[in-house]
Automatic annotation (TrEMBL):
The chain crosses the membrane at residues 24-43, 49-73. The keyword Membrane applies. This is Cytochrome c oxidase subunit IV bacterial aa3 type domain-containing protein. Residues 14-47 form the Cytochrome c oxidase subunit IV bacterial aa3 type domain. It comes from the Bacteria. Keywords: Membrane, Transmembrane, Transmembrane helix. The keyword Transmembrane helix applies.
């Protein structure tokens, strides 16, 4: 229990703020575009399965919604 850990537990480390900001920006982008993708797929399923629009109409819905969402969120 009382062995030497090989480092100082009380020493303060330095934080790489540039890397932190880059990682956070990547996370936000993943959440934003992932949410767009999930909503686009759900809308495509709505049009294809519930409304009865068929496969082509549901694919067009996914593509149009995703494109519009990306344009509006830029």
């Amino acid at each position: 229990m009382a062995e030497d850990l090989g480092f100082d537990r009380d020493a303060r480390g330095t934080m790489d703020y540039a890397e932190h900001n880059r990682t956070y920006a990547g996370f936000l982008g993943l959440v934003k575009y992932g949410s767009i993708g999930v909503v686009a797929i759900l809308l495509g399923m709505l049009v294809g399965l519930i409304v009865g629009g068929g496969v082509i109409m549901s694919l067009l819905t996914v593509i149009v919604f995703a494109a519009l969402a990306v344009v509006f969120l830029k």
